[in-house]
What does this fold into?
Amino acid sequence: MLAPIFSRPMVDIEKLFVNQIHNCYIQFALEVEHPKHMPSILEKMKNAISGLYIKSDGSKFYDNRKDPESVTVHRIPTKLKTLSDCCDWVYSTYTPNIESSLASIAADDHRIVVNSNHSITDGGYFVNLLKNIQDPSKSGLFEKKAPIPRDLRTDLLKDEFDEFLQNKEKYMKRLPSYKQKDLTYLHLQEKVNLPDSYNLFQKRCCAHIKCSDLSPHIYSRDTNKLSHMSEFLWTGLCMAINAKNGKFGPIGLENCMDLRRLVPKERVSNSFGNAYTDFTMSVSGANPKMTIGEINASFRSSFNQLKQNYWFYKEYLFPFTYMRDNCSVSHVSNVGPMKVSSPCKDFYLQCSQKEEMLRSVLQVTSYSKMNDKKDMNDLVLHMRYSPAMISMKNANDIFDTYVYFLKNVDPRMKSGDVLDELIHFQKSLE
It folds into this structure.
């Protein structure tokens, strides 16, 4: 049993997210089948969101000593019709000052929405929260308020990080040496003039796609399952950006890895708050004669090599520098499948922040949604970008091309032919 902590120093990535210039928060909205379920679900949510009881001075986390009964639950306005609207509203209206708390919560008679700082929560946190909150056998997890998340390096994953550091030379010999030229950048060199009144928040392109509308090489109508989703997400974004660049270029990107996936499930608890790392991956020798399937296979082979050699721990400790002036790099974060079951009806997950933090990336977040009734099986895509770097028109072109790729891709096609098709598709948008 881990002893409670009442304060701890923050690591660099946590400090980045609490920086109020960036104001990076994750929103999670949950809808229940009937108002009678709201009291119990709301109580669980209040206890599960640690940020309601944590504050920060920018260098440390502190226990805020607040009782769950004293937490203010804001009222969701009746005019808000969608869970997405609820998420946007709570971020714009009730993002707290970090010196008071790191989260806020709102509700009405059938919806709950939370807004939690990215320093203490990530997509994986809400994947586990949704799973546990719907499982009656896990009710004990919600009897007490969530603790201050533990530090990954010195606490939760200390053995794994120590293993890498103690055998660093051995692992480094097995790991690839990526360079910026190996990654897919948007080369528009676009500097967008914004009006003085602009509020400096990110922009987002969104798609809610029925899995049955995806390419049959991604979604099987016989098994109702997705396959090789990550590979197609990686390759598709690189191809869509290269189409906007107007030529075949490097196939490589930044990606997110949920470190929870690297340890046994029994070790994962709400002590894991923000538990991901970015990592770099590229296709060596990518060329137009390679098929999409060969590019996918190269990505997967690289991923497996990185996983076997503690690359994700290396990237957390010694991150690759991918940032280039006036260029956004391709970046994918695939949260994975999330299932909703009774008494819950629907959910929504997104990330919001000020635009400055996104100037170096064109970032896609994805997750799939399904339910017990089998009438929901959807892929949700968000592409976030800085409006100071990319115009809305170019962002929409890239995103629409990405969606087109996922709906129509044939892995047997040569990537050069696919690129020509995507360029043609982008021109048709005009």
